Amino acid sequence: MGIYVEVQTVAPAQEIPRGALIAAELFSRLMKRFTPHPVTPERVHDIAVVRELAHQVENTDPGFAADLYAAAARHEGLGD
After folding, report:
1. What are 59-69's pLDDT values in tens digits?
2. Rounded CA separation 80/78 (Å)
3. Mean pLDDT, residues 25-53 taken together
4. Where are the alpha helices (DSSP H) in 5-61?
5. Is the pLDDT at 56 greater than 90, yes or no?
C-alpha cells in the first residue's frame, strides 16, 4: 500500500492584470493632486510680507493676525 502524491506546478502570469494597471493609474493621478507646487522666490517674499503684517497687528487685533498667519500657511502649503 503506497501513497502517491501528484505535484502540479503553476506558471506565473505573463501579463499584469488590467485592474492593477487601472488602479495604479488612478493612484498616480491622485498623488499628483497632493504633490505640493514648487515655492518660487516671489511666493516666499509674499508670505514673509503677510507674516510681517500679522506680527505688526498681533497686539492690536489678534484675530486678524491669526487670520493672516493662517492665510500665509495656506499660501505656503497649498501652492495657491
Report:
1. 999 999 999 99
2. 5
3. 85
4. 18-34, 41-57
5. yes
Instruction: Measure the CA–CA gap between 9 and 67, rounded to whole angstroms.
Output: 66
Instruction: Quick: pLDDT tens for 1-36.
Output: 678 778 777 777 677 777 888 888 888 888 887 776
Q: Which residue has the cell 506546478?
A: 9
- Whole-Å CA distances, 43 to 23, 47, 59, 69: 35, 6, 26, 15
Work out the number of other CB atoms within 10 angstroms of the CB of residue 57. Answer: 13
Domain residues of the chain, as ranges?
37-80
Q: How far apart are CA 42 and CA 48, in angstroms?
A: 10
What CA–CA distance (Å, rounded) separates 42 from 49?
11
CB atoms within 10 A of CB 18: 8
Residue 80 contacts by C-beta under 8 Å, 6 or more apart in sequence? 74
